[in-house]
Specification:
Blueprint (H helix, E strand, L loop, with lengths): L11 H8 L19 E6 L4 E10 L2 E11 L4 H24 L2 H7 L11 H10 L5 E4 L12 H4 L5 E4 L2 E7 L3 E6 L4 E2 L3 E3 L1 E5 L7 E7 L14 E3 L4 E4 L7 E3 L9 E6 L1 E2 L2 E2 L3 E4 L4 E2 L7 H5 L13 E5 L3 H4 L2 H7 L5 H4 L1 H14 L4 E8 H13 L3 E7 L6 E8 L3 E10 H7 L4 H8 L2 H8 L4 E9 L5 E7 L8 H27 L3
Parallel strand pairs: 1-6, 8-19, 20-21
Antiparallel strand pairs: 1-2, 2-3, 4-5, 5-6, 7-10, 9-14, 11-13, 11-15, 12-13, 15-18, 16-17, 21-23, 22-23, 24-25, 25-26
Length: 507
Amino acid sequence: MVLLNFTRTLSTRELVQRFTTWNKHRTIMMCAKRQARMAFVKLDNEKNRLSLSFKYESDFVADRLFTINRGQEEPIETSLTRLQMNITGIAMKKFRKQKQKPRAQENISNSNDANKGCSSNENTNNGEDKLKPSITIEDLNGTIIEPFINNREAFRTGHVLNIDGKRFPIVVDAPTVVRISLPKIMMTGFPIQAYVTLEHANLPDCVFSWWRNSVKGETFADYAKDDIIKDKSQTWLRIRGESSRTYNARPEDVGHKIMVYCEPRCGPVVGVEVSAVSSSVVNTPPERCAFEDRHQLTPDILPDNMFRVVSYNLLADVYARTEFSKTVLFNYCPRDALDFEFRKHLLIKEILGYNGDVLCLQEVDRGMFKHELQPCLSLQGFDGIYCEKGAEGAEGCAVFYRKSKFSLTESNRDVLSEKIEEKECLADIRCVVEKNLKLKDRLRNRSTVLQRVLLRHVESKREILVCNTHLYFHPDADHIRLLQAYISVRLAEEQLRKVDEKVYCIP
């Protein structure tokens, strides 16, 4: 009896180097046809489960992804039997279809002489039995692991899943795409963002490919075999030259659905490629946007010794989608134009068109920052900091800066209603406010936040303090806004004094 050898476990890099082409000048080849196939295991220790995913094909199984989810303590014999049943079930369907064709039957049937005296049912069963693959797991030395060993110990990085002689190196907690989707509304000239949630993967390392579905009568003569995907319902054509998370829809995409593939990666390690298809087709945008006239005033990015600041209130979707906003605040606005899926495309295009170097944004939804602004603006050379409001959460402020001109020195978040109670530099304001209980309560109940970002100018080495806030909006709250503005100025002045002291401090 042979048990597991736990003396040494291959590192992920060693495993990749063993089964793939690697050198110091190139990363691992990303084409699935050239890349060594692997078996990916994901551990869920909270539920004591693990999932196994791998791509497999044989004479009777088209290239497809197989996945099983089993308990970590379950013997591998039980799990491998389940996997064998899954593969056999798929193979059986094709076997039975081909059995009805004379040529296919000749290829898979045993000779009549060898089966004399057997019934036709027995012949069929004998043929079907051959479809069951032999499945084992091997350790680092190539020794088959005993069937009573549990899944957690058997499915380890460096071990190999062997299916009828086809070897799949096992990788535990490999780069994984948890979720992927596309926007509901897509328009030409506007970026389409792939929304991706990853595990054990580094987004900048991931490789994307973009596809559009073909229309009736379209020819594929100009497309290589690898640039065409055919499924049951339609054919997809690769959009050449696109490999990033964002794709700018083109005029030729109008009327077509879009599909994106994401191949998750972390350094040289590659996970299972996953795709998403848009729920709608690409449309034409509004004939002309009002902001395009304003863009004519800012046609270029300023030289390195100058910078432009842009401030913009996005109108958070958490407010725009309420019935009060639709019927009272913005009753003059078509419902479609208030739809965030539509607005977000226009917002990003407008903000980028001002060619700013420092962007101060207010009413930024958490999701808008994470899934839209950060990935899209990062491709344009920006980095950003998000600053959520106080108790309400859901939205806040964001500052983006052009990395070629600025570097981040310091970032601070101040909830003004809290700072007035804590900061010594606000003691005189606090003393006055304490005398008016109504004023005190109203000021205390606000979640207004001040975002302070200290940036260093790359060329001059000088620092600038960027303060970004969204004061209390209520029409009868001008006195609250005045106090909030004054508190913000005081906090900014305090930070500037500290910066000056640091600069002129002599050790």
